[in-house]
Design goal:
By secondary structure, the protein is mostly helical. 50% of the residues lie in helices and 5% in strands. The chain contains four helices and two strands. A two-stranded parallel sheet has the order 1-2. The protein starts with 7 loop residues before the first strand and ends with a helix.
């Protein structure tokens, strides 16, 4: 093995190894999904097809995030996938920040910049609604 590409996830606990069941390759199991649904609404019941679709979407999302994070790690010239790689991808592509991982700095809230044209339109709308 002259050119092995072993990727280690730094900063996260290791997962169970040697999974052989089809559900073992999924991060989110049907039971966990049902528990999440019960937390939101105890009376809600998902159809089997809906459960399968949600599990597939979750798997696809995780696979795409990990793939993009690995590309960022490679860009850093590293064989180690670190939490900061995942964070960077989630923040830039999905506008998501997962608290509790990485730095403890407070994330600044980016206020949308309002243009002068927008301010004029809003003033006109307020003026017409007051009449």
């Amino acid at each position: 093995m002259a050119n092995s590409t072993m990727t280690v996830v730094k900063g996260l606990p290791p997962g169970p190894a040697g999974r052989s069941s089809p559900e073992g390759s999924q991060v989110l199991s049907k039971k966990k999904l049902q528990d999440l649904v019960r937390e939101i609404d105890p009376n809600e019941q998902l159809d089997e097809d809906v459960e399968e679709m949600l599990l597939q979407i979750a798997d696809d999302f995780i696979e795409s995030v990990v793939t993009a994070a690995c590309q960022l790690a490679r860009h850093r010239k590293s064989n180690t996938l670190e939490v900061k790689d995942v964070q960077l991808h989630l923040e830039r592509q999905w506008n998501m920040w997962i608290p509790g991982y990485g730095s403890d700095e407070i994330r600044p809230f980016k206020k949308a910049c309002t243009t002068e044209a927008h301010k004029q339109r809003m003033a006109l709308i307020r003026k017409t609604t007051k009449k």
